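FORM 7B: Structural annotation worksheet

SECTION A. Query
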Amino acid sequence: MESYPSYKDSGVEWIGEIPSHWDSKRLKHISNFQSGYSFKSEDFSIDEEIPVVRIGDVGDKIDFSKCVKLSKTFLDEHKDFIIKKNDIMVGMTGGTIGKSGKYIYDEPSLLNQRVCLLRNQSSILNGLLYHYVKSEIFKRYIFFYCYGGGQDNIGREDIMNMIIPLSSLETQTQIVSFLDNKTQKIDELIEKTEQKIQLLKEKRTSLINHCVTKGLNPDVEMKDSGVEWIGEIPSHWETSQIKFVTQLFRGKFSHRPRNDQRFYNGEYPFIQTGDIVSSGKYLTNYTQTLNEKGYSVSKEFPLNTLVMTISGNIGDVSILKIKSCFPDSIIGFFPFKNTSVDFLYFVFSSLKNEFYKNSTISTQMNLNIERVGSIKVPLLPKSEQTKIVEYLDEQTQKIDSTIEKETQRTELLKEYRQSLISEVVTGKVDVRNYNG
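SECTION B. Predicted structure
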């Protein structure tokens, strides 16, 4: 691909030079903006008809089965917050700040707070605006201008003052056509890779589930466990409620230190749900520390406690290998002497569906510690637990290694996608005569 004949300085550091005959416009002059509404959580239900798109739902594909819903009457009462086909959504806060997607559905949804809509005006094509918010340039701008205490935020004015390089509508049409074609091919590769990753994860879960409920001996005599999620077990195994095989701990504080900067940057490791999600089998890293005041209102778990998230992304587990304190969104399980914590880790890894069944939903999913404690798990000799752990450690490591390689491939494809879009929408390459 070739460059344009001549360039000029855009005046914006992260955009750099643009073609000499292009213009620059602030987003507020070429697009309309609509922020979301603070709907009341008590009005949410999974049995109503109209989905509410929250910040975690934003993307090119929305899983409506995971959306909270409102009754149809809210469409008439909140017309300004209806999401229409081809609207561009952008997250405005937290870990998903800058995440974007185009609403591709015919049926309407309602826009929740901390998500905004962009609707193009006549001087810019909807397709170009969409590709721009998917570019690396857009992400850089968002992260440069975001602000916050406990979490990042970006406001309406900051978004609407963003400068966008603008070519003629004819050139925009050619750019959109090129990027639609190229990004579709990249997305297909990403989707195939993600499908492979999903199959590997399912294989991993199936392997774990089989081993912790059936053992390693295919010829052993079996019996009905009487527990739906377990099914048949070896005849010499038993089952027991979780509360009878482990001591249960609940993280606790009277004030939420993760929302108060005064408690941060001390000497005490403070484990958050995201640390467990990203840790793997053993939890050895943390992203936040508390000072003594924050630590004093938190709960400390013993080393080698199995820790699990019970709020939001529920059911993620890890084995604690560092001295630390915990919020009330995490519970701990310290096994009694006849239960291996490593074996319990694999048991819990196969229990996610059971945890979902026992969860409650308000604005996010939550698990009740008493309900968790009443779930039944297999009870077997510790010598067998050790053999199962050794086998699963070896087999899951192989699967995890393949998953990691495929995940890296996916990330590289996503980075290439963003970079390609940035090069094209800022005119670093001329795609008007591209035939490939």
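SECTION C. Observations
The chain is about 35% helix and 20% strand. The chain has two domains: 23-166, 216-379.

SECTION D. Sign-off
Analyst initials: ____
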